[in-house]
Structures are given as structure tokens and as C-alpha cells.
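Hi F.,

I've been meaning to write this up properly since the lab meeting, where we talked about keeping a consistent format for the predictions we share between groups. The idea is simple: the sequence comes first, exactly as it goes in, then the C-alpha cells exactly as they come out, then a line or two of notes. No screenshots and no reformatting. I'm using this chain as the first example so we have something concrete to point to.
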Amino acid sequence: MRGKKIKSRLTILGVLCLLLMFFGIAVAEEMTKSSYSPVVIKESFGKTMKRMTKDKDEVMQRQMDLLNERYDLSNQPAKGVMMSAGRKSIQEGVRVKLPSGVTWEKLADMIPEEIREEDLWPKGFLPLPHPNHMEGGMVFPKIHIKEINKQEGRDLTRFDLDYDLPDHFLPEFPAPIYLTTRPDLGDVSQGKVVTIMNYYELFNGILNPKQLEGLRLLVTPFPQQQFNQTEDRRSEFPSRGVTCFDCHLNGHTNGATHLVGDIRPQEFRHRLDTPPLRGVNIQRLFGSQRGLKSVEDFTEFEQRAAYFDGDPVIATKKGVNILDRGSQVHFMAEFQAILDFPPAPKLNIYGKLDLKKASESELRGQETFFGKAKCAVCHTAPYYTDNLMHNLKAERFYKPQMINGRMAACDGPIKTFPLRGIKDSPPYLHDGRLLTLEDTIEFFNLIQELKLTGQEKKDLVNFMRAL
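Output, unedited:
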């Protein structure tokens, strides 16, 4: 009898153990849903690097397959149309590939629900994932990595992935720098990439002491999520970090990409196409969700949060650089506030075309821009922004889907970026999914249901090239 009781108790204990085990698994699974990145890394750096280096070719091949499926990536420069420094042609033509048997005209005649149900939304108009979306982090074009290594001996190469878009779809390198305070000087960068090694000789005598110190801070490397001294970095050797100008090259942009720091979980985070700093003095919204209202807020936020995926715990671990608001932030912002748009010789003081300088096509494009195309509803002259957020609701046209680790569900409200100097800053839209101005016009023709003609589209391109 006693034996039976013992057996019964053992059985009950066994059941309880099983229940506790399954409960423990459930709790563990629930605990994996976290807003925080792992702080204590269990794998050695050597093993991490070996594993991720081994997977790199597969990761990049997957991304390049996606890009080739979406776009015509060939080099097709527009004849006689250069970026503002005259060192690089802009790319022309619609590069987004259409589904088989479909034309742009046919799509324009369909309502959003039809396009969605028949799965005809061009894949190039879907959100663009990061080169390795589940990993994320800052990724720099090879031309920039090479120049920074040459000047500073600081290597921005990642052992786990490379930048994905071809160089001919990126802004000219190096970007020219125009100052609101000294427009008479033209490009004050003298055709150089501005770094900690040359900023003083280039700008001493042009900037005031506060601006010069602000520029020094903008080209000073500070620890960042993937570039630091910890075992969970993504550079082969311990790194001093990155600078503001590693993405905002020469106060403009080099097309470097990242993921926004303010969305969770990972698959819903947006790829970020680095916007230019040109014209920040006339802008009033900053940050990926535009919750920052001044360039000072943006400067401080970048160092404290955006550099570390919005995770203050990781920031502390990796060496967050806390800037002093009253001096350092102010100095950096004062320099950023004098970065000007490139010259636009065909525009008058109101930001409209000078009738004596513009071509007939450009003038028609301007009329379409302010009329049928409704571009000026958001992009108002003279800087072609309304400093507001707008939700395009592109999800009307496609069903939610996972794309290389990116959940394409909706974009939400996005900022109206200035169109002044727009030809200098491809690719377009907040995540860089649109490679050319022609792509951009086709996208908005469908989004806004405009039914533009072929000639109206060409004229719009010519007008925007003149901005």
C-alpha cells in the first residue's frame, strides 16, 4: 500500500516537473520578446565573426537577388545632366520593373483595391529592406570606406555584410559644401572629403570659432552600435566609432543606410536612407518619426540614442558620448544651420522658374507640379517642403508580406523632404526604394491616382532637375 502511495506521489511529481518544464519553456519564449538588445554576450567575438563572415556571401546574394528582381540596375546616365559639382551624371529612366503583361498606363487606370487583389503592385514600390534586415546597423558605401581608411586609418568595413546599391545610384562623391554665410565661395570643400584630418585647414578663416568647433565634433569618431570596442561589434578590430559626417558626408549624404531606432520588433523597423543636412535651417521636423523639433534636439538625440538603435542600456555599455547642450550641441547645430542648398540658377527669389532662363519643358513641368500633379500640396515653394508629416497609405495597393526579414505592412506618416537640390540626393523616399526621379514620379502617379500623361511625366522630371 505504501509502495503504491510512493509511486503515486512520484507520478504526480513527474507530472508537475513536466508542467514546470513546459511552463519554463513558455516563459523563456515570452521573455525573448524584448525591447532591449542582448547586453551580456554568451558567444566569443572570434566565434561570432567566424559565423557571420561565413554567412556573408549568402546574405548579400539574397539581397542582390531582391534588387535585381525589382530594378534595372544598369548604369544609364542622363546626357548633359550633372549633379551640382559637375563630377557625376544623374541616372535617368524608370528602373522599377513591372509585373508581366502590365504597363504603367494600365496600372494608372486601376483602383488601389484592384491592384492589391490582383497582386500587381510593382515590387520596387514595396518597402526596401536593409541589406541584412534582421541584423541591421550602419552600412557605408565602399568608396566612403576606402577614403576614410586612407585619411584616418579608421576602417568602416563590416565583416558581416556590405552596402547593396550600385555607386551610380548614389550622390556624387565627395559632395560639395555650400554655405548660407558665404555663397560667394561656391564649394568650400575644394573637392575633398572633410574629415578630422583636414577640416581645420579647409575652414579656418571661413567659420567663426563656435562653428569651427562644431564642425570638429561632426567629424570626430564616437562609439556606435556596430563600431566600438565591445565583443558584439561588427568590425574586425576594435573601433573608435563613426562620425556624423560618415553618413552626412560633407553635410550632405553619401547614401549610407541604417534602421530607424524607434520601432520594435526588428522586422517592422524601416530602412533609413540618410537625408542631406543641406537646408536644415528651414526645417522644423527631425528624426525618423519627426518627434524632434530642432536641429539641436536632433544632434543630441543622434549621439544618445540613434547611434545605439534607441537602446540606452546598450549605449552605456558601448560608450555613449553625452554632449553638452549649452556648448557642444549648440556649436554643432550652428554649423549645420549654415549648410545651404546647391545653386539653382534658373529659379527666381520665390523659388519659381525664371521665364527667361527656363526651357518650355521645364515651364510645363512647373505648371503640372503646381497643378494636376498636386506636388505643391506638400512641397511648397521656395524650398519645396511644408515641414509636415503625411501618410501616403501605400498599403492600399499591396497585401502585408515579409521581404528578406522586413515586414512590409505600412509606412505610416513620413516627412515632406525639401525638393531643392533634389537631383543631388538619390535614391529617393525615406527608405531609398526609388532609384531615379522617373521612378519617383511613377510612384506618386499611382499613389495619388493622378493619371499623368507621358509628356507630363517627362516635363516634371525636367522641372525637378532645375530645382
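Notes:
The chain has 13 helices and eight strands.
The first helix runs from residue 2 to 31.

If this format works for you, I'll send the rest the same way.

G.
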